Amino acid sequence: MGFRCGIVGLPNVGKSTLFNALTETAAAQAANYPFCTIEPNVGNVAVPDDRLQKLAATAGSAKIIETQLAFVDIAGLVRGASKGEGLGNQFLGNIREVDAIVHVLRCFEDGDVTHVEGKVDPIADAETVETELMLADLESLEKRVPNLVKKGQQGDKEAKSAAVVLGRALDLLRDGKPARLTVANDADEERALAQAQLLTGKPVLYVCNVDEGDAAHGNAHSARVFEKAAAEGAQAVVVSAAIEAEIATMPPEERGEFLSELGLTETGLARVIRAGYTLLDLLTFFTVGPKEARAWTVAVGAKAPQAAGEIHTDFERGFIRAETIAYDDYVTLGGESGARDAGKLRSEGKEYVVQDGDVMLFRFNV
Fold first, then answer.
1. Are 302 and 73 within 8 A, CB to CB?
2. 3-state class of 175 per DSSP?
3. What is the 3-state secondary structure of 34-71?
């Protein structure tokens, strides 16, 4: 799957409440005091996709299997985390293991819920967390880059390439900018950046946690966050953790009416997933048959053998071809047989770039 999002933020901004709601569990203890989340809780959720239902209905599939998305609820961060304050070292270590950061920001006023900084200011909160991440990256690179430069001067080509690109990242950090703005000029530099596991190199999705009354349109606090996200090339969504928690306890058939009453057309989970897909350049392809209709996730630009490998490594290793039908053609023409008769079933080779919504059947030999 390769899509693991770490939910971070200052204490008491609604991280664990949101995590519980998104995963429809009570695995993370939500409490009104710092560090109530000690170990990172991990929850897998099904990615909602209406296309999967239509494909299953068209093919008469006995089972529907959605693709999965992993959320990791990470302990709250405070100032000084880069120096080990609070649960700093653990916090930073947990972030290194995720693909993207879902940064929950408090955008609601509530005198009954304390704020670690004593005031509601989502921009300041975001900067507090990002500063700690930048300080940790800065310390790491100031030790690493000189060693890479030395190895490069001794003839180590890999170290030389890494020294160049990580040197650019170091310059950005010294200038108060995150490492994700670093430009890699070739595959070697991209690999060096990835291997460095820089905390500020990860894409960020800001989640503005608002009260119920602001869930549909946001408020002045969330508007500022959206401006910040736009300036950074990040993503932002408005979510009410309180509403999501309530939805999680409802029968599925009652959720639509409840959302409609609040002026909403979809859950916060759906918005978070869509923004996350955009952030990480992901797409969905499908496998469909009488036994099951199943959704799979790959990166934009993935070729057919890589998609096959998501199902099983043998499929990628022995890949021959992929019989492919566009989603619209599959549904409109009544399935594989109709698409084949209409000339819409294509035989694609190893260089085929998978498109969002492709219905694929892989031929392989091992």
1. no
2. coil
3. CCCCCCCEEEEEECCCHHHHHHHHHHCCCEEECCEEEE
